[in-house]
Write a structure and sequence with these properties.
The termini are far apart. Strand 1 and strand 2 form a beta hairpin. This protein has 2 domains: 172 residues, no CATH class; 138 residues, no CATH class. Helices cover 40% and strands 20% of the residues. It has 7 helices and 9 strands, in the order H-H-H-E-E-E-H-H-E-H-E-H-E-E-E-E.
């Protein structure tokens, strides 16, 4: 009887201990799984945020690098005194955007993204690799250059690897950038003029064009939209016809500042690019067939320059001394 009681006691004790051990091990094992899953989920979230952060930075870096690339190409033209190879602006821009190879651009996209990738790699303890796959360049408005790139990124750590790519579109303002047309044309004459692009506040075809506003436009070296002008991107190639629609610009310059413009071989580019204040460049144009914005032309009758706007208000301008103080209305020689 005593032995039976002891057996029962030991049996119950064994069963109880076994149940306790099962419960303990089962509970502990399940808890460790939850902890590990939480760690993995937190890690995935961190790496995902790292990818988003990289692309947010890439968009900002692309704007900075694009502006620096325009300046680098301008300096290249400044030093050589020649325009870029025709139809080669986009490839040269891509070269300066992505690297400093042949470009004085320390703020290129490769440098900026490499530095930021190193920060992500250090903070996340992961290997980070990226590549800029495509660059597409368009000028859709007068004052903006649109840059579209495809950038890939690869993040690798102990748990997994992320490989993704996104299209990045940024807009680079051309306001305040240098106009390459002026520096290349004047470089052959022992100097270069640094002229920046700033828009006029007077709208095209505005009745506000008069002798006073024209002088402000001329002296302020301002720019306006014009169907007979050329896009800023085309000017890097020395092209006076636009490859894109809706971005044509024109300005006014005194030909005495740019003697090369007096060369008859260059007469064809002057009206396409800017209205040159010199008596041997333009014949009168009919404002009926050419009504947009203002025009500067030569009066055959008295060799004066003639300015008109869409309302055919005309002023006689005398280029020898650029005296605009006494305009002559309805100057002879123009319709």
């Amino acid at each position: 009887m005593v032995l039976n009681k002891k057996g029962i006691i030991f049996s119950l004790l064994a069963i109880g201990l076994a149940g306790l051990f099962v419960l303990l091990f089962a509970t502990g094992y399940q808890q460790r799984l939850d902890d590990q899953n939480d760690v993995i989920r937190a890690r995935i979230t961190s790496l995902d945020q790292g990818v988003d952060s990289f692309y947010d930075y890439a968009a900002e870096a692309q704007t900075i690098a694009g502006t620096a690339a325009l300046d680098a190409l301008y300096q290249e033209i400044n030093q050589s005194g020649t325009f870029l190879t025709s139809d080669n602006f986009e490839s040269n821009f891509t070269r300066c955007l992505n690297s400093s190879d042949g470009c004085e651009n320390d703020l290129n996209l490769s440098v900026l993204l490499t530095n930021y990738s190193a920060i992500i790699a250090t903070s996340l303890h992961a290997d980070v690799q990226f590549s800029v796959n495509d660059v597409c360049l368009t000028q859709e408005t007068f004052w903006d250059l649109v840059v579209r790139t495809n950038i890939s990124i690869s993040l690798t750590d102990t748990y997994a690897a992320w490989d993704t790519s996104r299209d990045i579109t940024t807009t680079i303002s051309t306001v305040g950038t240098y106009d390459p047309a002026y520096v290349a044309i004047s470089a052959s004459y022992g100097g270069a003029e640094d002229r920046r692009v700033f828009p006029t506040s007077i709208a095209p075809n505005s009745s506000r064009w008069n002798i006073s506003t024209f002088m402000d436009f001329y002296k302020g070296r301002q720019y306006q939209a014009s169907q007979n002008g050329s896009c800023l991107s085309d000017r890097y190639e020395g092209s006076w016809t636009s490859s894109f629609q809706g971005c044509n610009l024109e300005s006014v310059v005194d030909a005495d500042e740019h003697p090369r413009l007096k060369d008859p071989a260059n007469q064809s580019i002057t009206h396409m690019d800017w209205q040159v204040l010199t008596r041997d460049m333009h014949a009168c144009h009919d404002p009926v067939t050419n009504p947009d914005d203002f025009r500067v032309s030569i009066s055959d009758a008295d060799d004066s320059l003639v300015l008109w706007n869409k309302d055919t208000i005309r002023y006689g301008l005398y280029p020898d001394h650029l005296d605009f103080s006494s305009p002559t209305y309805n100057a002879p020689g123009c319709p």
